[in-house]
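Protein fold
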Amino acid sequence: MSTITYRLPEERAELARRLAPQRKLYDRSVSKGVADLFDQVEREGDQAVVRLTESFDGVPIAQVKLTDDYIERCLSELPTPLKAAMEQARDHIREVNAALLPASWQRVIRPGTIIGEKISPLDTVGIWIPARKGPLISTALMLVAAAQTAGVRRIVVGMPPLANGLGDPATVAAARMAGAGEIVVGNGVAVIAGFCHGTASIPRANGIFGPGPGGIAAAMSLASSYGVKTVVGIGPTECVVFADETADARIVAYDLLNEGEHGPDSSAVLVTTNGELAARVESHLAELIGQTEPPRKDYLHTVFGANGLGAIVVASSTEEGCRFINDYAPEHVMIVCKPETERKALELIENAGELLIGPYTPFSAANYGIGITAVLPTNGYAAAFSGITSKDMVKASTIGKLDREALGGLLPIVRELGGYERLPFHVQAAEARL
C-alpha cells in the first residue's frame, strides 16, 4: 500500500486533488437519464417498473408488490438471535426518534397574540432500501421506525429484487417488523418514480427517503419537483476519525476499515496532529487489509490505494484539523482525544452528519445499536443537511391568533405595507374588522 499520508497545511492542494471525487455525487447526464425513466413510469406504471428492472437490474419480476404471505414467511424464518437483535435495535431507534420528534405548541407571544405550530405526520411515505453492496437491514429498521414513530399512516418500502424476483428475506422482515405496511421490489429509480406518480402497486407518496448512489440521489432530487418531501445527498459512506496520541492506533485502523469495507467508493480519513499515531495507523491498515477476504479486500485496496478516497491527514494544529473536517463535511465523525482536545473539537466542528465521542463509540455501534440515525448526508452535503429522522416524516402548520385589540395594534403595519405593495384589500380586510 503506497503512502496515503498528507500534511496540512503544506500538502493541502495534493489532498484536495485526492478527495475531489467525494464532492460529486452525480452529473447532468445522470439527471437526464433519471428524468426519462420517470416519464416512462408516468406513462406505463407497473409495466415500466417491471421492464426497467429487467433492463437495468437484470432480474425479471412477476409482480411489483410482495405478498403478505411472503412477508410473513420472511418474519417466521428469521434466525432467533438475528430477530432478537433486530427487535432491540428497532426499539432503540423508536426511543431515539420519539425523543427527537417535535410536538405541537402554542403560547402568548404578545398581549392578545398567540402563535404556535401544529405538527402533523406525512400521510404516505415511500422508503428506498438499496442492496447494491449487500443487504441493509439496519437502514430498513432506521427509516421505517422513524416514519412509524412520527405517526405516518401508510409506510411503503421499496428494495431491489434478488435473482428470484423477491426481496431479501431479512430486509423484508426488518421493514415489516419496524412498521411497513407494504413492500415493493424493482429498479430503484423506477420505484422512486412510482412513489412520485403512483402506479397500480406503488402509491403516490408525500415523502420519499433513502440512501443510494448517484442515480438514486438524482431520483430523490427530481422527486422534490413533484411536491414530494425528500432528503438529498445520501450517497456512498464516508467517515473521519479525529484522534490524538491517546487513541489506540490499531483500533483507529479498525474504525477506518469499518467504513471503507462498504465499497470501493467509500471514504475513510484519519485526521490527527500526531505524526507517530499516523504512521502506526497506516501500518495497521496495511496489515489488516492483507488479512481480509474478497470482495472486501478488493474494496479496501481501492479505498486506501493510489486513487481511493482513504487518507491520513497530519494537521499542524487542532484548529487546522477541524478546518479540514468542516471543509470536507463528512457523514460520520468520531472524536477520540484527551478531554480538553475533545471539547475544542466539539466546539469547532460544525459540518458533520454525526459526531461520535470517545473511544467506546465506534461507527458500528451507531450504525446498528444506539438508535441514532445512520442515514446521513454524504459528499459534502453535511454542510447544509442533516440525517433522516422522525423530524423529516412530519410537517408543521404555523398558528396565529389575535384578539381585537391586538389586531388594532397591527393595523398601522398592515396599512403601510399593504399600501406600498398596492394591495388595497389587504388593508380593507383588517380595517373592516375594526
Observations:
- The CA atoms of residues 135 and 371 lie 19 Å apart.
- The mean pLDDT is 97.
- The chain is about 45% helix and 20% strand.
